[in-house]
Every structure is written in C-alpha cells, then in structure tokens.
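Step 1: inspect the first sequence and its tokens.
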Amino acid sequence: MHQSKLGERLVDHGPNWIHGLKENPILDLGEELGDALMDVPEITPSVYDQAGNLLSTKEGRECSDLMWAVIEEAFTYSDQDASSIPQNQSLLDFFKLKLNEKNIPDVIAGRVLELCQSWGDYIGGDIDRQSLKYLWLEETIDGGTSLPNTWNVFLASTYKAILDRMTKDVVPKADLQLSTKVTSVSSSAFGGDASEAESITVVTSHNRVSSFEEVVMTAPLGWLKRNNNAFQPDLPPRIQTAIKNLSYGALEKVYLTFPSAFWLSHHDQENPQPFFNQWLAPEYTTHHWAVECAFLSSLPAPHSHPTLLFYMHGPLATHINTLTSKLDSSSSGYLTTLTDFFKPYYSLLPNYDPTSPSCSPSHALATDWQKDEFAGWGSYSNFQISDPEIDGKVELDKDIEALRKGAPERRLWFAGEHTAPFVALGTVTGAWWSGEGVAKKILNAYGLDATEEVGDAVAEEGMAAAGVGVGKVAAKRGGTGLGA
C-alpha cells in the first residue's frame, strides 16, 4: 500500500477502495482525517461492444443489470447450498447455466458473458477459476456482496493520510529494518502450548540473528506459497495444506493522464458521466482483451483529474507487466508503450480527436505487483476451483481458519488479508482486523486481558479473534483495485 506521483497528482499503487460502511476502522480513520470518500453513483457503465460501438443506455443497463442479478443469485446459492456445490464448479459455469435457463437471446447472453469477465477485476483472477462453492467468501462487511456501489467507497484523496496515521505512533517506537529480507524463522522447541516453546529465532539476509518470545508473520500469501523452506522445522501439515489450497490473485492497474478530460463534454446533469467504462473483447484491434476503466475526472473537487484508471487481471495483467518490465517509468518509451496499447480503447470515447494534444496521454503509470517479491508476486487472496481427483477434498474456509489459528505452540502467528474475518478477506480492513485478532491471542496467552473490539461484532462467524489492530502496519495489499 503506497503512492507515487503521476504528473502533479498522487495516486495509489494499491487499494483505491474502502469496503464496508458498518463499524469499519479504516472508514473511521478516513472520516477522522477528513479524507475525500466518494460514494460512487449508481449509474450504468458505458459499454462498447466487440465492434467498438457504444451501446445505448438501455442496452447497457439491460446487460449490466442482468450480469449483477446472476451474480446475486450465485451468492445466494453459494450461501445456502455450498455443501452441495462441486468444488470444480466455477462462477462462469453458473452464468452459462442461468443464461440458458432464462432463455436470454444469444446477442444479449454473449454480451453478458463478456461483461462478467470484469468479475476478475474484483478478485484478481479469471471468472472461470472463481469457485462457486466458496463464492460466499467474497461477501463483504455489512453482509453485502462485492457488488459495485453497495457497501464500498472510493478513496478519492488516496490512502496516504490513513497510512501516515497508522504508522505515526508505531514507527518511532519500532526497530524497523528496511531493505532486509528474512531468510529463516526457526522454533527452538515446541510442545503443547505457547508456554512450552522456548523461543523463536529470525535470521535476515544480513545474517542478523534475533530471538523473540513471539513472531507474527504478515508476509503475503503469495510469499508463503513460495517460501515454505524459510521455516525450520517445516510448518505444520495443516498450515502447509492451507497455503497450497488458497489462491493468490494478480490484479494490476494502469493510470493514463491526459492534458484535459476530453470525454467530459458529452455529459451533463441530466445525463451524468458513469464512473466506469467497459470495452468488450475488441474485434477491431490486434489484441482481444476486454478492459474496464474508472473516470477519475468524476472524483469530487479538488481531487478530480483527467485520468483513466484501467483495472486488469490474469493474462492481460501479465502482458502489461511484460511490455513495461524493461522500461524506465520516466522514459518516453514507457509512455508510448502504454499509450499504443490502450489507444484502441480510449480513442472510442466521446470527443476523441487524433490531432488534438488533449487526446494524447501526458503521463502513465502501470503497477507491477506480479514482479514484487514483497507483495508476494501478486495482489491478494482469492478462492478458486479445484479438481477433487487431483487435489482431494478442499475446504477453503477451514484453510483460512488454520492460517488464522497459526502455530501458537511454536510461538508463530500469521496475519494479513488472507487470515481476516470471512467478511473482510482481501481488504485493507481485513488485514487490520486480522492483526488485532493475533494481538489479542498473544495477550490471552500471557494471561492479559484482551478487550473485544468492533471486529468481533461485525464478524458473526463464531471466530475467537476477529478484532482490529496490529496488522494495520502490515496492511499492504499488492495491486488491489476494485477488490481492494
């Protein structure tokens, strides 16, 4: 979770959103600090079809409403009948089934199947990999789903003030070792409970050896998946299984800033600009990826700016990473590369004029979380299908609980969005809550009172520890966008 300059504007590399409006500590911080929180208006996104034609408002609304209606059905089905759903059935399978049951005309059904690919920008993975059985794990605080505009606000002023406030009291009191990798975490002895473990030792890449009474690992799930050998002895089998079963997303973002928002004059108060724009997989260009963007020109003043924020996942995200990986982000080649890729999309927007300087990007920024070791080579956890013949019986909810429990007999605990209460997985709020959940367990292990916090009231899952706290410093979520 960090920011950088895009021209004269500060933009978030990580999350843009705050999920959940009920007793949410991140939202409370934002309000306390006077951050600009935008409740995105429920306006049907602009949609361009495969031929590059703008659908009418009626056509766009019909397709968008149908898509979200099917997703709501899927959440209800997953909530109520998860035990009967095969673990290899995907959300895309459900879409195809329901569109067929509803006898939707082929043209409309085709558009909906294209539009629903945008679900990947919420979870950081393809919809044909999204588990229907465990779709309920994508439910958010307040009991809402991840549906846009339902329980979410866009942080127009970025996460900078919140991040600064989180670290204000912590960093001055911490022995913070930057540019230092942990290479080994070893338990010297372990028995039936935390009091029987003698100590836990951390070794860094600088060969610094430190022993602690307790260690809280806030490493991302993606890092854990690649570094099982960092733990000595091996992690308990149940935790190893959990790390293997849970999936890690790959969400990336590209910001394109223009000299002015050339697309704006097409809209007025009676026909306001949507916050989102979607392009179905184009047939008019050499690459055929569906793409969506947010108009940051729609943010409230003084935070609005003439920028298109593109969200992407899967092979497209990897492709963009590959295009920019060897380019200096301040070079003309970097800007040209991103401009050339996205031009077939933004050139369809209203008032585009190829001869006008206002219609050519002046600045660009592409995230590269998939190349970031410390973000776990990706973004945040998601919940994918599995093959029972290959993987055996997979219980993703039990896997999350196993990570959340940690290995207290070894004085080793885990925190982060992947160990959050079920209602906040994959979010900054979830990372915050997971941290205090661990803090409370450690206090209890030493016979100290751990006062209940709001996270316990929100997460009505029978969890022993779903609070708010320590994880706030470790709430960095790689590349999170719509799902952040």
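Step 2: inspect the second sequence and its tokens, then contrast the two.
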Amino acid sequence: MSWAGLLRRAPVRRAATATATATATSTATATYRRAGTRLRPTIGIARAATDGSRLSSRARWQGSSGFRRRLWRQTEFGRRVEEVQLLWFLSPFFRYGVLLSGAGAVGFVVTHIDQVPISGRWRFNAISDQAELEMSTRAYQTVLRQFRHSLVPGSHPVAQTVQRVMRRLIPASGLQHQKWEVHVVNAPDERNAFVLPGGKVFVFTGILPICQNDDGLATVLGHEIAHNVAHHAAERLTQSYWAYALLYSFTFFLGAPDVLSRLVVDYAFTRPGSRKQEAEANADGVMRRTTSVYY
C-alpha cells in the first residue's frame, strides 16, 4: 500500500480508537456510579482492555469488586462475618437475641461500676465482696494443704517477728473485723509474701533477708494488705472474664492460634491493669506503714 493510502486510512483508525476509548470510559463511569468504586483505576483498566494489554494484579484489586469479594471470603474472618450476617438477616430470633443480650450486657456493666477506695479510680467489678471472700477461703485451704509440711510453728522467733509487724499494721488497715491468721512458710528459695482476702497472711522465709528488718517487712506486708483494701483480687477476676471473652472472639473470628491470642490479651489488657493496681498498692502501703509508726 502506498504512503498516500496509509495517510488516508489513519484518520479512520484514530476515530475508531477514540470511539472505543470513549465507550469504555462511559462504561467505567456507569460502573463507578452503581457500585461506588474508584473512577480513575476503573478507567485505567478500561483503557488497558481496549489496548489489549494484560491486567496486573494491582489493577484487578483496585477495579474488580468481585475479585475483592472472593479474596475476602477466602479469609477466616471474612467467612465468619458472612456467617453472622446470614444469621442476622435470616433469623429474627438471632437478631432479637443479639439486641437483648447487648442491652443486658450494657445494663450489667453500668450497674457494676464502683470506685477504688485507695485512689478514687473508676472500674468495672463484677465480683461481690461475699463472692471474693468465698473464693479466698477455698484458695486458703489449697495453700494450707500445699505447704502444710513447711509451716513454721507460731512459737518460732521468725513467726513471732511477723506477728509483731502484723499487729501494728492491722489497726491501720481498717480491716480489724476480719479473722486474721499469719503463717510463715519455711522456703528459703521462695522470695514471696501475700495476703489473701479475709486476712490470711503467708510469708516465705526467703523474703526475710531482703526485708532485713521490721521496717522492710512492714513495707512488703503493707503493700499486700493494700491489695485487699482495694479489692484488687475481685477486679483481676473480672478482668479475666473479659480476657477470656476476647480470647474466644479472636479464636472464632480470626482463627488465631490459642497461644497468640493469649499473648495479645495479656499484653493489651491484663498487664496494664496490673500496673495500675501495683501503683495503687505501693502508694497505700507506704501510707499505712507510716500510720503504723514504721518510719
């Protein structure tokens, strides 16, 4: 074909290409208006289709809503969400159950908000004082059985030292009405001491060299008594309920391994709460130690 013939056919080819591009653009605009997808990537896909080029995975992701839906359904979270959505739309009983359960949960939380006596911090606490005491009684029996062969007699000088310190701390605690019992456990390698709700004191001999004297022991025991004054045990039990609920939610919706879910809940929820409780117990323990003339 001569150069003159090619020049005569060029406007026709340009006009055909322009017509195809305009048609693809209008189709993409209509798709954008119906489905709410992004206009610019859709137009780019339409132009690429008219040129006969191969679509990239990024272009498919940006422009194909069907592709995104298929990818969403392949994930564990997407499948679980679609199952819940299906139940929500098909089962009135499920909808009413979810709404009633949500309203009941909100009401339960609102009616179980109380204030920490030590710091005035507001918190959610679902464990009553009586329930906390009953659980502490069972824990006390368990600890006694565990260390029954290692208990130091009350006439021993170490036990008398601990009892002397406690006699000065109890009046400052405001918990004189409780039935206090002091136990010293002969465990040189165990550097620990704790006070169970209800006035059950356990001191391990391994912590005595660290305390050095009555003042140091009073600091440790005053800190442990402050946990009981603030009912931190009940608060930790309540937090464990929330933690287990979140743990099962992670496992159900995300299909996350059990160990990973526990780590997420521990670092995100449990540990921040324990730091607040320890700070409150430190401040109140020092105050009660000072009130008991340990300064």
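Step 3: confirm your contrast with the notes below.
The two ends are 110 Å apart (CA to CA). Strands lie at 113-115, 122-124, 181-185, 193-196, 200-204.
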